[in-house]
Amino acid sequence: MTQYIMDTLDLDEPAAHKMRQHYWRIYGATLKGLMRHHGTDSYHFLLETHRLMNLPEMVIQVKRLRHMLNRLSGRKLVFTNAPRDYAVRVLEIMGIADCFELIFSVESTKFHAKPSVRGFQMLLKTIKAKASDCVMLEDNIPALMTAKRLGMKTIWITKQLQKPNFVDYRLSGVLALTHLKL
């Protein structure tokens, strides 16, 4: 993303990196800031920043993940700020794409990426569910804050020991879900 900003806005690396971080902090997504302040074409941005020809080498395989997902009750969805094609590629590389009923990508939110309340509301409307019936599993604190504000149960995947009060459960890894009684 930094390279994209350097190329399209003619900035040096430190300035592009600073801008990317600033938009991430303010909007929860670099793209949102680029669209709002620079008229960036969202589809072009997503295509260029998610090509990643070496994606299979980048994706970390988690043994027993498929088994664990299949044992979990309830509907399973992916809610991502990534483009749909990229999310599908990652899930296919991991061998778990068929474990999910829906991939709700940044395009699905009309670019109201997490932590935007509008993106969450679009997801809930699409799946015809109440927030109180949902559990959000996430590594991003601002997204969990929105989820909790809407009434979802929240699970934070992190190695940190302290958890904020809006996080219901903190797990060090996704496989620990099998030990959690929701």
What features would you describe in this structure?
The chain is mainly α and 182 residues long. It folds into 2 domains: 2-49; 56-179, 3-Layer(aba) Sandwich (Rossmann fold). It is 46% helix and 10% strand. It is built from 9 helices and 5 strands, in the order ααααααβαβαβαββ. It has helices at 2-9, 13-27, 30-38, 42-49, 55-58, 65-71, 84-94, 117-127, 141-150, and strands spanning 77-79, 102-104, 135-138, 153-157, 169-171. The chain has a 3-stranded parallel sheet with strand order 3-4-5, with helices on one face. Strand 3 (135-138), helix 9 and strand 4 form a beta-alpha-beta unit.
Sequence of secondary-structure elements: HHHHHHEHEHEHEE
Count of individual beta strands: 5
Proportion of residues in β-strands: 5-15%
Oligomer: single chain
Q: How would you sum up the global shape?
A: globular
Question: Which characteristics define this entry?
Answer:
three-stranded parallel beta sheet; 10% strand; mainly alpha; Rossmann fold; two-stranded parallel sheet; 182 residues; 2 domains
